[in-house]
Design brief:
It contains 3 helices and 2 strands, in the order H-H-H-E-E.
Length: 63
């Protein structure tokens, strides 16, 4: 989660942009998909990401 927060803070993923898929991030970060899923869920709870059913997760405008 710390790495994903760092990327958001560094504007690697801009507001409104589609956030990478869990499977893609799991491979990139060399962690289990369930670990990434938990981090994404926590970022949603913090309001930094939102999910559109069938489309994926996106970076919140006011994150």
């Amino acid at each position: 989660m710390a790495e994903l927060k760092r990327r958001l803070d560094n504007k690697e993923y801009l507001p409104g942009a589609r956030f990478p898929a869990v499977a893609e991030l799991a491979v990139e970060l060399d962690v289990a998909p369930s670990t990434v899923q938990k981090a994404v869920a926590a970022l949603r709870e913090e309001g930094r990401l939102y999910t559109v059913l069938g489309q994926g997760s996106f970076v919140s405008e006011n994150q």
